[in-house]
Backbone:
């Protein structure tokens, strides 16, 4: 990878590593579905204003808007609803472990829909990453049992993984068609946020806002940094190196989350956690290193 691509990799890793903790401040008075709607409608409005002020092209065909709508529903809508909902029941560590499986779906969907090759080095690095994530959150996983409640949440997480992975594939597809990332993210976030708000109305959930500093600041952080900046850099990288390799960002982010948890939540390190960190970074190094050599 080039230096620029490494920067595109590092930015969303650092930001999304912190959003696992920031999401906790969104869980409380406001329903998770409504919090997702607030997050992406705010992010979409800010990003559209930025695109208009900087003179970017904002006209797209109906077919392109349809692709953007699908992107919004999958990547900026239902995916995050599932994540927020899961974190109301499971610890963020367990959710992070389950969502590390997204790399498997990206590899499969990339082969099915974009005719990408399933490479042995990518599979090997993926296995290292998933095992590392399991080691990292071993203590939290020990409290997870497949009772009816946890099993239901596990299914919710799988739904989030599939929708997020399909969103990744859609973004790679539209970038192949030369549809710009920033503008489509702006419309996609608006579409995703509105879809979630309409779902709130359909489910007859209360329309409220939590007027606390923690909720407001975390919402702003998740909208601007966790949505606009992180997704813009991640999806740009995805278009350049492919969805099978760029998704390692989603696996390395929990490692950053653990470092933050160590500071603010008193996370206790052990040999499994240290081994998990080593495996995570080894898998990422191999995936990105192989790409550099082949290029």
Residues:
């Amino acid at each position: 990878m080039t230096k620029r691509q490494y920067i595109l990799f590092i930015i969303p890793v650092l930001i999304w590593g912190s959003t696992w903790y920031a999401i906790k401040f969104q869980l409380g008075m406001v329903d998770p579905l409504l919090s997702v709607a607030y997050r992406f409608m705010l992010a979409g409005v800010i990003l559209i204003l930025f695109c208009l002020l900087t003179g970017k092209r904002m006209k797209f065909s109906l077919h392109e808007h349809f692709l953007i709508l699908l992107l919004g529903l999958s990547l900026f809508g239902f995916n995050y609803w599932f994540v927020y909902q899961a974190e109301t029941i499971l610890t963020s560590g367990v959710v992070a472990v389950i969502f590390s499986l997204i790399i498997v779906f990206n590899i499969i969907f990339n082969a099915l829909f974009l005719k990408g090759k399933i490479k042995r080095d990518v599979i090997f690095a993926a296995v290292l990453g998933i095992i590392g994530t399991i080691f990292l959150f071993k203590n939290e996983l020990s409290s997870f049992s497949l009772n009816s409640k946890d099993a239901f949440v596990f299914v919710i997480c799988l739904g989030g993984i599939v929708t997020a992975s399909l969103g990744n594939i859609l973004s790679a597809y539209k970038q192949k068609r030369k549809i710009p990332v920033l503008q489509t993210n702006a419309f996609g976030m608006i579409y995703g946020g509105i879809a979630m708000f309409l779902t709130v109305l359909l489910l007859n959930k209360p329309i409220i806002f939590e007027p606390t500093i923690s909720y407001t600041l975390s919402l702003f952080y998740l909208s601007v940094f966790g949505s606009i900046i992180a997704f813009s850099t991640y999806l740009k990288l995805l278009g350049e190196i492919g969805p099978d390799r760029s998704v390692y960002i989603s696996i390395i982010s929990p490692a950053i989350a653990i470092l933050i948890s160590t500071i603010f939540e008193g996370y206790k390190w052990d040999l499994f956690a240290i081994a998990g960190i080593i495996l995570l970074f080894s898998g990422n190094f191999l995936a990105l290193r192989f790409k550099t050599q082949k290029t």
